[in-house]
Amino acid sequence: MGDSKGSNLNPPLLQSLIEWDYLSVWKCYGLYGIVGGVILGLVIPLLFSTIYFGKKKSKQRGIQVAFGGDVGFTMRNSRFSELIQVPWEGATTMAALFEQSCRKHARDRFLGSRKLISKQLVTASDGRKFEKLHLGEYEWETYGETFDRACNFASGLINLGHSVNSHAAIFSETRSEWFLAFQGCLRQSITVVTIYASLGEDSLIYSLNKTRVSTLICDVKQLKKLAAISSSLETIKHVIYFEEDGTTIDSDFSGNMSNWAVSSFSEVEKLGKESPVHPRLPYKTDIAVIMYTSGSTGLPKGVMLTHGNIVATAAAYMTVIPSLSSSDVYMAYLPLAHVFELAAEAVMLSAGSAIGYGSALTLTDSSNKIKKGTLGDASMLKPTVMAAVPAILDRVRDGVLKKVEEKGGFAKKLFHIGYERRLAAIEGSWLGAWGLEKILWDVIVFKRIRSILGGSIRGMLCGGAPLSRDTQRFINICLGAPIGQGYGLTETCAGAASSEWDDTAVGRVGPPLPCCFIKLVSWEEGGYMTSDKPMPRGEVIVGGFSVTLGYFEDEAKTNEVYKMDDKGMRWFYTGDIGQFHPDGCLEIIDRKKDIVKLQHGEYISLGKVEAALMSSNYVDNIMVYADPFHSYCVALVVPSHQVLENWARGSGIEYRDFPDLCQKDETVREIQQSLSKVAKVAKLDKFETPAKLKLLADPWTPESGLVTAALKLKREQLKSKFKDELQKLYE
Prior knowledge:
Elements: H1 11-48, E1 62-65, E2 73-77, H2 94-104, E3 109-123, E4 129-142, H3 143-160, E5 167-171, H4 176-186, E6 192-194, H5 201-210, E7 213-219, H6 220-229, E8 238-242, H7 251-256, E9 261-264, H8 265-274, E10 287-292, E11 302-306, H9 307-318, E12 329-332, H10 339-351, E13 354-357, H11 377-381, E14 385-388, H12 390-407, H13 409-426, H14 436-450, E15 459-462, H15 469-478, E16 483-487, E17 497-498, E18 516-521, E19 537-544, E20 550-551, H16 555-561, E21 562-564, E22 570-580, E23 586-591, E24 595-597, E25 603-605, H17 606-613, E26 619-626, E27 633-639, H18 641-651, H19 658-663, H20 665-681, E28 692-695, H21 715-721, H22 723-729
Parallel strand pairs: 3-13, 5-6, 5-7, 6-10, 7-8, 8-9, 12-13, 12-14, 14-15, 15-16, 27-28
Antiparallel strand pairs: 1-2, 2-18, 3-4, 10-11, 11-20, 16-17, 18-19, 19-22, 21-22, 22-23, 24-25, 26-27
Helix pairs in contact: 1-12, 1-14, 2-3, 2-10, 3-4, 3-8, 9-10, 12-15, 13-14, 13-15
């Protein structure tokens, strides 16, 4: 669900998750070792004799549809004969959906935040200082109270002097005021520009100037960044900041921002409450958001999301999550400037659910910024629904399994037996595994692991990058929750496909969401055809109500990837390669373009990196390769014969022949260092610099079929020929 272009994952958070899981498992083993022995000796042998029922019959989740003379392979969701575009009649815009949901659930709790009680600086053994927070319980506002505050903020914006015809930008970490400001803007038909809090200065200046933002809404931490670039911002008139407990604005910041009217969020609310302004409600075709991404190459692109796009995606995802209601609690900590989190919170709004805000640094009891003895956000909130990105889940799985191996002995055996038995239950092989045995394994092994996220999770949403099969199963078992793995991009407002919660298959992203069609079109160059057997394959294109308008003031790029068919259906060409399984579920198997998303959500342009690294004297030819399940790239390098041999002679390196020279560790290190130097000069990011290399002695020629007559790489042929070498680089 969503296209994660630039993730804000935090290594200390990941480490704390890993350690917490490990400690919980072994504490649990100590308490229930005797019970475990009884189960191993008596109960499990009986359960193994349970009648075998085999796999459950596959459910048809997608249905092929015909589009006249369409040469593609088109699917829709099997449960809906027509595309849906609203969660209920009348909720055609985000403003209407917000107002109607707030009136319906007026007394139910909605937005929750934790009050800061105290903070202190702790000095580590290496001298580094860390901030530790003592946070209180969640304090809640009802849907009715939230609506009133959003209306007040909307009126305050107009009284402040914001023109309804200009844009407002939100530049902040995720928090309840972000959501309030967003809804307030939409009530006055103000288009909101969303910007990552981690976006670099050049991209920030470009985004704000490009969209001609007149009002900038941010948190206190961003004021310093804004002050440093204030002279480069051409259209800013008003700055509104979210107050922080115990934080004041430095006078130096104010001096640099003397050309702007600076107000606090509460001041704007108060201004609006004292002088209410009638709303100027939008139409469904109006642009609600211009969402800037971190960009795959060069400067970021602003995707134009209409009100209709957002409500259609929300309506579609409500059909995926079973029994979503006001009794559910959602943990919000991912970036709201990303379409994944924005769509998820729109879904919760539609269902009348509660949203509790936290952060990656305070999520668990042992998170980096949580003071010892203070509960983390998840422990305090006890969410029932949560979104996550694969990198977090992958690291949790790998860390726990590593600790299991280190522990060894009875604890290791108990964990693996429990895991295998629960795996059998999930895959539907043994009827008995769903009953008493499930309860026993939950008590002995998995219950305490689940308490890491509060112990009440009944389902998770996963998006932003591919989720590995092993990790999906691990979360199913150890957290006891189904995962709705979604597929979507900013350009489809996060709405394309999502696996359904009763689907136990792994490695797939489910059928098309009911707000859109998904079509595969043949890509002959790559060898992916809709006529392929046993499954049709091709480039994934999405058409329907979630497909956005295009890129802000960039008609050329818009026309490259957005196409209108002869029936008026607007399609977005994703560049991803997929295949449809017989039950109508989509699996993403490749990427058409040379742009790849890594494990943490960063995009790497292989061509750009290759062009930069070719400046090394050692490189005759190079192909960079990136596996989306890893956080780094690797490379195949054909070294310059003469340059490398000259280095070897000067360094006293002995070798039999050129292939032998290419295999030596000293040679690989020398070329690795050279590539690192040119990468630094080219200002490549760390993840764009190949972490491992394979040196190939034989040149790539048109005759070999590895390059074109113009000596351009034939990437697919290279990947196929050197498949084993590439795989070894990731081992």
